[in-house]
User: Fold these one by one.
Assistant:
Number 1:
Amino acid sequence: MTPLILRVAIKGKHAVVVLGGTVKTFIEKSIAENNVKNIVGVRGVVDEITVEPTTLGKRSDAEIAEAATRALKLNVMIPDESIKIVVEKGYVTLSGTVEWQYQKNTATSVVGNIWGVKAVVNTIVVKPSVGIDARNVKEQIMKEFERHARIDASRIQVEVAGNKVMLKGSVRNFDEMEEAENAAWSLQGVTEVTNALTIT
């Protein structure tokens, strides 16, 4: 069965889409969600898609854990020695610490591509080895926004408390929202980004 749009709630010019159905892999589930996010006018996506590998694609938890460990070790961007993997009925939980948010995100992508994985729960904590100067971090983030053509920096407010960043304001679509969050995460020393942006 392929992913289906179960419901669409429309409010003004925007819509919230509920996805359902069954796919064979976790990566198919992610692709379906991202495709809907890219539709103009979609403001939110509720993903109720379930992953059910075919008989040939099913693996034991031990096999998935072994494949995940090997995949993380082969990826040069991920400090695999600091990441722990727990697998239960095809659901993978990642824990541990990394220095950068992109390393945490990459770990999810790498493990999510493994055949037999139904879902990935990423509880990895970002712990930079260096601190940040809170007085300058807001200015640095705004400069990052200006470097990205798809981000309208004039509509976004940045609040900084220690190593934590909050983004407020409005954006035009999911792409701009995610790009703004990634720009905030790109500064070394940031340990938390709260994305309170809304799509208007």
Number 2:
Amino acid sequence: MVHDSRLLLAAGRASTGVAVIAGTGSAAWGKNAEGEEARAGGWGFLLGDEGSGYWLGREAVRHSLRRMNKGLEPDGLTAALLESCGVDDPNKLIALFHSEDTDRRYWAQRATAVVETAREGLEISRQLLDQAGRDLAELAAQAVRQLGLPGPVILGGGLGMNVEPLQSAFRAGLAAHGITDVRVLDQEPVFGVLRIVAELP
């Protein structure tokens, strides 16, 4: 079975390099010309998934609960999150977060509240997207170092392919490591199957 990260690398028209998935979860995987492989992240939502949709959704909840604890009124992010969750009080987010009816995919979908309010100019949402991009860049840099590669690094996944502020932070984070061959996937990873098949002996 070919895992998603390898498909992403192939869909990015590269046979060597590092692929980073930023979707519900997050992970980096790469391969060099010697056939050595490396990965970073991919530990699951309890241990990692930095920069993922789930991470953004969870951080939006935590932000909202911190404001509640400080006695502050809901800001734009909290209001968007409450509307997305169909509740009217930040306190209700606690039970909802721990409910059996909401899984990691549910909270990953709440990342839209962060993306939309960042687009409207809300600073906390912009900060969260910036942190997500830089966390993903750190995963990529770890895999790059393991493989001794200059690049390329290819970013994919629903968030990675569609959220420009996250992409910008990702590029900036990698530039700080001296990695400048950075690409955003422009087609679905499934198209990587064709390249992988073409490379078979």
Number 3:
Amino acid sequence: MEEVEEIVIVGAGVSGLATALGLHRKGIRSLVLESSDSLRAAGFAILTWPNAWRALDALGVGDLLRRDHIRLERHVIKSATTGATMSELPLTGQDMEHETRCLKRNLLLQALVKDLPPGCIRYSSKIVSIEKAGNLKLLHLADGSTIKTKVLVGCDGLNSVVANWLGFRQPTFSGRFACRGLIEDPQNPIMKRHIMEYFLGEGFRFGFSPCNDETLCWFFTWSPSNRDMKFT
């Protein structure tokens, strides 16, 4: 089976859904292809700064997300060994110039999907190869079908099939490892609305920031030793 689409976006993550919603707001139809069988709402939280909120407002989802995420008031960096404050930056003012919040990824995806038209996202649609045919791109899917498109947008993450087809360089190691997660405790409301970072020295750093009064996002990052690299 072969079909023709004006615009195909590969990947239903944050960037793919934001692109589709932006086009939809302008009255332009697109098709999002997602290899998973449903929206992948896994993940933790994303620290969003003023530019992100300008983009979310332009997409029409800013106010919806503000309802579930508190505005952060300060960014504090401390030494974990001495407790001394190394830096402190206020994030509030009379306007929204420094608006910063920590967004739960699943709520961000749900907000982006909410106003997309039915049929905009097609799940279980894994692209196995891409070829060019004149001004069109031929997308060959794992189920044997083919989609022709005039515009192809790659938002398919680290191991992007679109980037590989375009000949982009393979991802390289950044030189750091990181772990992160969420803690939810409705019985003990979070009091401080601060981004907190602690430096331990020798490349070790950890911190946390609240998403709302019940949810805290934490992270830990370090520069790996040769021993660490053996386990990757």
Number 4:
Amino acid sequence: MDEARAACGRLDAPDDAEALHDFRVALRRLRTLLRSFRRELGRAVAKKLQRRLRDVTRATSAGRDAEVQLAWVRSHRPELGRRAGPGLPWLLTRLEDRQNRAYTDIRQEIPPEFRQIERRVRRGLNATLLDASQAEPSFAAATSRLIREHVAALDQELESARSTRDPDAVHAARIAVKRLRYLLEPIAEERPRVGALVERFKRLQNVLGELHDLQVLLGDLGVAVAEAAAERARRLHAAAL
């Protein structure tokens, strides 16, 4: 929660290229822990609040997608050389416009919404943590159960990703890796072997993330080409009249 608050405060800084990424990572960690420990937390954080956290995360997706796609296209620009022709500047302009629009919406809408959610989440968690009236399983017992559940879910998602080229399957596998990684991170400092495992999951997450980002980019390129062709046809039609 503290990391999400700090990153949210940096969203207005135009030169902070990592603010949005850090904010999204902190939100995902928070949502993963709230979801994973919902049995232990009970009604500390209402489902409505968790849905609002989900919606905040989703509202930042367009900006992050455009940011990632811009970085990928720019990094491969030297390889394309003259073969890219006028299409490359056109694509870069399109992605930059999309990123700017998304960032404008994020800076206007996300901080006030997140601050309101944060206050209510903190209030609920503090009340639950201070209430010792009910005996709950230890952190070790709860985490052990959750690790087994998350490993089983990851096995299933990875098998689905292997058997299809569906971007949604790759994305689901990446999410499963993230959830298990975020669950393990709090104990990684105390257990070196867990820390090494977290690093392996991080590398797997990056590979799946790059694959999914390319799949999304290919889909967006198809849409962009279709829109460009339609616009050219409209101009030719108008010129012929």
